[in-house]
């Protein structure tokens, strides 16, 4: 028992010593560590890839009557762009405005579970995305509605209500 206690004490001392060394090192090169973290965070391209997949999945969820999934995809499509708040602070407000204003009719159609309005607004958003891409110099990125959802492992035809998504 005493041997076990000594081992625990030794390991604890090593952890505390190591922690204080890393805190000391962090104080010496905090900006270097911050820069390292910043360089590891995704800018726009990686989150936009997730946005695109969720946007496409959203259509098939709505079409299949899985309104909760459509709402979920929209919510997490927006959240996917959060790293850009830090890594692209000048560009992020464009996304935030787009989602809050131009994408709102899509979200309203999901909440109303209105497929006709959803399809109309979803199609309008595709045009808006392409206009934005062109305006930012990325006209070679043209969004089209896929003929099938990117995520094949999801049940899109599961009847649900938009309000079924946990907060």
From TrEMBL:
Q: Name one GO biological process term.
A: electron transport chain
Q: Which InterPro entries match?
A: Cyt_c/b562
* SUPFAM superfamilies attached to this UniProt entry: Cytochromes
Q: Which domain of life is it from?
A: Bacteria
From the UniProt annotation, give the residues forming the signal peptide: 1-25
Coiled-coil residues are none
Q: Which GO terms describe its molecular function?
A: electron transfer activity; heme binding; iron ion binding
Sorted alphabetically, the keyword list is: Signal
Q: What is this protein called?
A: Cytochrome C
């Amino acid at each position: 028992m005493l041997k076990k206690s000594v081992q625990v004490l030794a390991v604890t001392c090593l952890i505390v010593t190591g922690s204080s060394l890393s805190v000391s090192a962090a104080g010496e090169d905090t900006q270097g560590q911050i820069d390292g973290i910043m360089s590891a965070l995704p800018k726009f391209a990686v989150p936009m890839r997730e946005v695109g997949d969720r946007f496409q999945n959203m259509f098939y969820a709505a079409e299949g009557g899985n309104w909760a999934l459509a709402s979920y995809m929209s919510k997490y499509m927006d959240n996917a762009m959060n790293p850009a708040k830090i890594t692209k602070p000048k560009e992020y407000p464009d996304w935030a405005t787009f989602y809050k204003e131009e994408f709102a009719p899509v979200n309203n159609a999901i909440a109303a579970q209105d497929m006709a309005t959803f399809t109309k607004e979803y199609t309008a958003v595709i045009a808006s995305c392409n206009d934005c891409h062109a305006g930012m110099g990325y006209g070679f990125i043209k969004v089209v509605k896929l003929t099938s959802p990117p995520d094949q492992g999801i049940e899109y035809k599961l009847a649900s209500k938009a309000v079924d998504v946990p907060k």
